[in-house]
Amino acid sequence: MGVIKAAMGDALLTSMWVFSMPFLRIFTVKIATFLGVQSIPLAALFITTILVTCKVFTFSVIGDALGGASFNPTASLTFFAAGLKKNASLLSMAVRFPAQAAAGVAGVRATLQVLPLEIKKTLKGPSLKVDLHTGAIAEGVLTFGLSMALLLILFRGPKNMLIKLWFMAVATVGLVTLGGKYTGPSMNPANAFGWAYVNNWHNSWELYYVYWIGPMVGATLAGWTFRFLLAPAPPPSKEKKA
């Protein structure tokens, strides 16, 4: 029952995350236009970073309220590989990942229902812009970087939560910008599956090789690297006085 409840929490949070993703770009353009800085790339990146910070904070609160729900399968795998989720198992992830993928489809469908036609025409989700192997490597490297940044910021970074969120937003926006010319990028298999499903390429090898296997390998390597090389040492045990 615990696994089913966790999967339901993941599904709800993932659908909300995927649904809100396209609005980041829309709000960035609207705000940049209002401020008259739409022609300045760094201004757009700064606005996006602020919006991502607010979004990550909001979803962190909602995820905690849902009992530690996750909107990204690679985040769950990262913490599992790093040994930071003692109650997690491969069996639980085998249940939660399909729930997140289905929720990705629901999130994309909901987005396309509410957006006007002229905006929907510009939305395609992650798309491969290089050859298959380069794309898989790119998604793996980008996810490794994002997962490692997440672990370092949370467990070795500043104590102030707002600064942590800002650093996570900077890392996310920076990696998305770097990966734009390769795979979109996604760094979230559930999000990629949602867009692949509505665009009818969810049965392709490209989806699973580039947008599932690549990120999963990157997340696992990041978790292992942190676990064996970078994890903080446990506090010394206090010996009982005789």
Quickly give the CATH architecture.
Answer: Up-down Bundle
Task: Estimate the global geometry from the Cα principal axes.
Answer: globular
The structural class is: mainly alpha
Low-confidence stretches: none
Order of SSEs: HHHHHHHHH
Which radius of gyration do the C-alpha atoms yield? Answer: 19 Å
Q: So how many helices?
A: 9
Number of structural domains: 1
Count of distinct strands: 0
| Beta-strand content bin | under 5%
How is the biggest beta sheet arranged? none
Mean pLDDT across the residues is: 91
CATH fold topology = Glycerol uptake facilitator protein
- CATH superfamily grouping: Glycerol uptake facilitator protein
- Broad CATH class: Mainly Alpha
Brief description of this entry?
This protein has 242 residues and is mostly helical.
Polypeptide structure, described:
With 242 residues, the protein is mostly helical. It has a single domain, classed as Glycerol uptake facilitator protein, CATH 1.20.1080.10. The chain is built from nine helices and no strands. The N and C termini lie far apart (45 Å). The mean pLDDT is 91.
